[in-house]
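User: Can you fold this complex?
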Amino acid sequence: MMDKIKVSILGSTGVVGQKMLRILENHPYIDVVNLSASRSKIGKKYSESVAWVEPGDIPERFRDMKMVSTDPEDHKNVDYVLSALPPEVAEDIEIKLIKNGINVISNASPFRMAENIPLINPELNYQHLELLEKMDTKFVKNPNCTSTIMSMPMVEVLRHDYKKITLSTLQAVSGAGFTGLSYMSIDDNIIPYIHGEEEKIPAEISKMFGFVSNNKIINRELNMYVTSVRVPVKVGHMGIMNIEFNDDIDIENFKNSLRNFTPLKKFKNLYTAPKNPVIIHDEENRPQHKMDLSNGMEIHVGRLEYKNKNLRMVILGDNLVRGAAGITVLTLETMNEMGVA
Amino acid sequence: MMDKIKVSILGSTGVVGQKMLRILENHPYIDVVNLSASRSKIGKKYSESVAWVEPGDIPERFRDMKMVSTDPEDHKNVDYVLSALPPEVAEDIEIKLIKNGINVISNASPFRMAENIPLINPELNYQHLELLEKMDTKFVKNPNCTSTIMSMPMVEVLRHDYKKITLSTLQAVSGAGFTGLSYMSIDDNIIPYIHGEEEKIPAEISKMFGFVSNNKIINRELNMYVTSVRVPVKVGHMGIMNIEFNDDIDIENFKNSLRNFTPLKKFKNLYTAPKNPVIIHDEENRPQHKMDLSNGMEIHVGRLEYKNKNLRMVILGDNLVRGAAGITVLTLETMNEMGVA
Amino acid sequence: MMDKIKVSILGSTGVVGQKMLRILENHPYIDVVNLSASRSKIGKKYSESVAWVEPGDIPERFRDMKMVSTDPEDHKNVDYVLSALPPEVAEDIEIKLIKNGINVISNASPFRMAENIPLINPELNYQHLELLEKMDTKFVKNPNCTSTIMSMPMVEVLRHDYKKITLSTLQAVSGAGFTGLSYMSIDDNIIPYIHGEEEKIPAEISKMFGFVSNNKIINRELNMYVTSVRVPVKVGHMGIMNIEFNDDIDIENFKNSLRNFTPLKKFKNLYTAPKNPVIIHDEENRPQHKMDLSNGMEIHVGRLEYKNKNLRMVILGDNLVRGAAGITVLTLETMNEMGVA
Amino acid sequence: MMDKIKVSILGSTGVVGQKMLRILENHPYIDVVNLSASRSKIGKKYSESVAWVEPGDIPERFRDMKMVSTDPEDHKNVDYVLSALPPEVAEDIEIKLIKNGINVISNASPFRMAENIPLINPELNYQHLELLEKMDTKFVKNPNCTSTIMSMPMVEVLRHDYKKITLSTLQAVSGAGFTGLSYMSIDDNIIPYIHGEEEKIPAEISKMFGFVSNNKIINRELNMYVTSVRVPVKVGHMGIMNIEFNDDIDIENFKNSLRNFTPLKKFKNLYTAPKNPVIIHDEENRPQHKMDLSNGMEIHVGRLEYKNKNLRMVILGDNLVRGAAGITVLTLETMNEMGVA
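Assistant: Here's the predicted assembly.
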């Protein structure tokens, strides 16, 4: 029997860290051996360190694990550190781990745009993982939750000659973390601004759709206008995307291509990969948070309407699973299958 | 002392009807003399006929008014009938009133696109009221709540040579009426479709910005792509509008023009007209439902960002006041000042 | 291999019916063979008849089943009809089925208080199922969702000599059905009244805790004061119960008795029975809807505080699973094990 | 013309402080001359120091006021300091002001139970203000929001010989301050515990209903069991109160006494005093947050049901107005009329 991949979870008490534990609870070949969070929790049991918010109880096997630090010496025993650290502390901690020879796959924003570090949404650009072959210590980033979700159906958009993409994102409260927004500030309200988001989304997507040259990612140029607002839903980022093409497209072909977009089929043991990463809905009242987030790794697309070279799509994805915890696990699984892990 | 304008309220027990009563409760020169609703309520007191949902109690002076029918004979004693009828019954009732010589100003959708009936958002097109001069019986329509709100800042957009307008509307639950959406269907959810809305909005706006010729409205052609979704907020429709211009615009001039857009200043006694119909916000987290709906007749515009001939605005308005009950009262006030009432 | 128990689901398109299908989707020995709902849906596929609201998709095996009527001739082929009918139609339909020799286990309110029909919350009074032995056609009722949940920890209360029970129930919106309450009426609001609830709860609980004599249930007298309010949560009924005892009780014994209350342990194949029907929480901020409804068949009890012969408990249960769909399935499973099915 | 009473507002940027400014914006004889908040805001304009959350804009006259410290020297120019300070800083600041001869009326919890400091809910115990006559520097406390609201109808309960009072309080999110609870923690959830609340409520009420003897308040003994839970509504604390009396009461007399409870009628210029502090509702679905909080100083009582010497009432009040900002203003107004201010 193959040895399991040993991992640490950094930021394990946050909302994304908790979701990682849920996903990895019964994983067939990834084994969580270390949990860490902020310094004050070192030495405590996980169950005493966490304000558990995931539905269901803390998985039994993690309850009594003793919290360790984020220092390199506490992670010498793992193959990979999976980081769900908050951005303000991630930079220092992650760079220290890398300098000490510890591999990191990270959800945190620092270094996402570094040209020599792959920014992976596996179905879209697992090929960028080839950059790792020349790295002694592996360092991989995952995109922002919204970039991850909205980029998925763009794979088909970018196969055509388009003029402009206009995107409005309606983002869930959990995207700001469990305590990021008070009830009084967002209930029965919409906040029409999310700091940094409107810059990150096009930048990160342009890197994901870039190509590798001389061990660097050359970003793809995009003409994309993004507006991001916070809406009072707990989980699920929705996007309304309007694309203007230069030439006519065949909308049925477009939909079929997305339905049949299964680039990871060639890999065998991707336990978190959805059968179809993009689900196309023909019912006019889909996608909906209430109906379409039960498999958190799928991206749901509906309201496709095409006229006069203009296409409209409504996109929905789970910001905690596909947008954060799940994408990191899928990235590691893909690396393992490609032989770069 | 001038005689008061006598009005009936049709659909007086609905959410828009109640809002009309609140607005007219202490009106200096409009006097509500008849209330009607569905047939089963005729003869009952208003207070026994209504499921009152407006904040605060039923205005004392309406509590004991006896409900009348919607038939013409019950409205011979008024100068105007103000209609907040549901669309499925409005057509027959309104046409019968008109045929019997009773003037009607109506919020309901039937006949909104009729070329000889003015569709009035007073600041934008009070001039269209001139059509009334040749009508024996006056029949005026108000636009859909979303059309009303979103059209307001477009007054400045359409002064420039633009290529395309893309609009995403995030619409409040009250837009579907008090019982239109169940809690289970919309709480913690977004429904990405509102029946008929995406067609109505550009059509009605093209009529509002049309011009009068031969006693008809000639619609203005628009190149506008609209997506409408229902969000879990109670009151307030928000729009994210992206405009591409053909030539560069001066964004500061654009904002100032909207700030100074006060076309009704020439009229004296418009009690419901806001001093400035368009409020421009420079703070990046405005407009918000929580902060910007206390004067329900104003339209709030923020997040103005201009680059490469592309302008983005976030628009917010009160769908029950400006979008429905208030616009009807302001229409009557304007007609009165213009001498066509 | 044992033959499976064949069942029909009546009211299969409602929120409780859907939950039954979810629970029975992979049941090892109960097989759903008929689905019915209102007359207008007869002959249609289930997927075309239902507004599916359960998380996740319609189970594949039910999608294409053809809807049948509620008439007896359509249910001759089953061992049991499970009824999730709305109360206003349940009486006629159920009595007709019974008269035609078709066994019924029902969630609906009519006949719940009939002295010769068992009203079953399995852990509490499976013994009442002995009444079925003399019935040619089996007719079993399940209690109201709130009665079901609140009665569970009362098993221990009623072992002591008590003076009075005061109960405030904070009930979820789904208890009124999927479309029972509009968003505008209950969001950010509490409605301090639920029709019929305050009478049903003590009456049904007095029957559940009654005893069998001459093939009838003799109700147990209760001194219980109930107030029921509707709160803006989607799933989960909470109760605040204050009990005054006549003599001192040992609170630790009380808690342990509830923890060890496992009356169904003697039966082997109860697939929906929770290992422990009552979970006692010592943390002061439990139970919570967000944390404690993942196993919908458990009843969660916390905030136990005892002083001066007065005990306070906060009780929480899933009104759709334990309170409706799950209790019916567990009732059938128990009947099967007892040999009365 | 009488000189206005000059006041400072401490904690002026919090949710209660903002509400005070709204109430005092146009007050006929109270003039806000100083605003203070945390040290870091000293010298800034109010509009730059506050995250304004009250509906409507910041009152014009306060926008540009320069923030001062909470130190005594900054408040020598006022007649009274009104304190809406958070409890953790209130003790030191208030005691320092008092020691420096500055009068304080405070909402904050420290010293509420001190026997020589009146704890005032004006209608209930304005008589306790007589304690001030012998104080050189006046120090008055207002009760906790829930104590304030729930005590009001108890005035009639305590006129009778009762055995026990059981109270369940369903408290709004704003009671924890604007940022006290995250959206993720309380939306679609109930938290069955509020730190300190269950002790404070009976203690404070027993003091409010106490009597003055030797310049001290002797608390009234109460037999009261309280459970407090947090519910997902923004404003409005509801209580379900069950009272067992020793003798039969006349329920109609009881209701009429509450309806006619107008102890402040003797004072003339109480601008914030409601005409009737207790409103009795006979409709079974009242009181409701949605309908009954428009006059924030009234306490609404409904669902009165009496049987077997047991009375049940549902009580609702505005926790920000009557429960905090309004009660402080009304206290000062009453002191002014009584000649102790």
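The two ends of chain C are 18 Å apart (CA to CA). The mean pLDDT of chain C is 96.
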